[in-house]
Amino acid sequence: MSLSKEQIEHYREFGWVSPIDIMSEDEAAYYLSRLEQAELDYPGQFSARYRNNAHISFPFMAELAFNKKIVSAAASLVGENMSLLGTVLFAKEPKSSSYVSWHQDATYMGLASNNLTTGWLALTHSNLENGCVAVIPKTHHQGMVKHNDTFGEDNILTRGQEVADIDKSTAVNLILRPGQMSFHGPWLVHGSLPNNSDSRRIGLALQSYLGDDVKPARGEHHVMHIQGAPVSNDFIEVPRPSETYSEENRLARDKANDAFADVLYEGAKMKRNM
Ligand SMILES: O=C(O)CCC(=O)C(=O)O
C-alpha cells in the first residue's frame, strides 16, 4: 500500500504522516498477544532496558518489519531499496511516569543522510490519556538542532536528550487505534507524555527504514535487508530470524545492540545501564 501523493506531500511539508491503516484491530491484538506471551516466556527480552531490536531474535517481530503494507508505505518515502536499522519497543506501563522528551531521531544515530523514516505502529490505543506521540510541525526544515543530555530518570530516551526551545503550542497529537501507524522523518521534533491510563500503551518503532543512499557517518551499524538492492558493505547485515530466540539470533541481537549503544553514547558524559 503505497502512500498517496497527498500523504507524501504532507510528510515532506509537515514532517510526518498519520494515521495510516495497516491492519485491523484484531490483527494488532494478535501481535499484542504474541508479544505479551513472549514477555512471559522470555523474561527481560522486551524490558525497558532491553527494548531494542527484538525483531532480530523473534520472528513475529520481524513479520511486522516486513509487513507488506508497512514496507510499501515506507518505500514511498525513502525509495524501493530499503534496509531497517532497528526496532524499538516503546511500552509505557499503566499509570507510569515514563515520557519521551522533545527530540529528533537523527541526533545520535551516526548516519550520513536523512533519507530515512521512522514508522510507529500502535499495538494498543495511543491517545492523549496514555501519552501518544506528539510532533512539532515543520521542525524538520531546520535540520539538526542542539540537544541537551538530561539523563532524566523517567525519560525513556538513551541520553534523555532534549531540544531546549520548543513552541509546544503548535504540537499535534498522533492519535492511533491499534493497527494504525505514523511515519516521521529523522529531523522532526517529537516526544510523548506519561501514561495516565489504566492500560499499557505500546508502539513498535521501526527505527528507521533506510534508503539506499544512507551510509554510516561513524561507528558500526547492523541492519536487516528489507527489499531491493542488497545492503551496502558499509553496514553489517543481520539475517531475518526463522526460529524464535535461537542462540545465533540472540548473539546477533546483542552485537547489534552493543554497537548501536556505542554509537548513541559517543561523547556522552555518562551511560545508562542498558
Ligand atoms: O513511543 C513514544 O512515546 C516515542 C516514540 C519515539 O520517540 C520515536 O518513535 O521516535
Notable traits:
Jelly Rolls; binds 2-oxoglutaric acid; 14 strands; 274 residues; alpha+beta
Q: Could you name the CATH class?
A: Mainly Beta
- Name the helicity range: 10-25%
Ranges where pLDDT stays below 50 over 5 or more residues in a row are none
Structural class: alpha+beta
Kindly report the average pLDDT value: 93
Proper CATH architecture: Sandwich
Helix/strand order:
HEHHHEEEEEEEEEEEEEH
Q: Look at the structure and name the CATH superfamily.
A: q2cbj1_9rhob like domain
Number of strand segments: 14
CATH topology: Jelly Rolls
Q: What's the end-to-end separation, in Å?
A: 36 Å
Number of domains: 1
* Count of alpha and pi helical runs: 5
Portion in strands: 15-25%
Bound molecules: 2-oxoglutaric acid
What is the molecular shape? Answer: globular
Give the biggest sheet.
8 strands, mixed
Provide the gyration radius in Å. Answer: 17 Å
Structure, described:
The chain is α+β, with helices and mostly antiparallel strands and 274 residues long. The chain has a single domain (5-265), classed as q2cbj1_9rhob like domain (Jelly Rolls). Helix content is 23%, strand content 23%. It has helices spanning 5-14, 25-41, 59-65, 68-78, 247-265; strands at residues 16-21, 82-84, 87-92, 100-103, 116-122, 133-135, 147-149, 161-163, 172-173, 180-184, 190-192, 201-210, 222-227, 236-237. The strands form three sheets. Strands 1, 2, 3, 5, 10, 12, 13 and 14 form an eight-stranded mixed β-sheet that branches. The chain is globular. The N and C termini lie far apart (36 Å). The relative contact order is 0.24. The site of 2-oxoglutaric acid has 11 residues, from strand 5, strand 11 and strand 12.
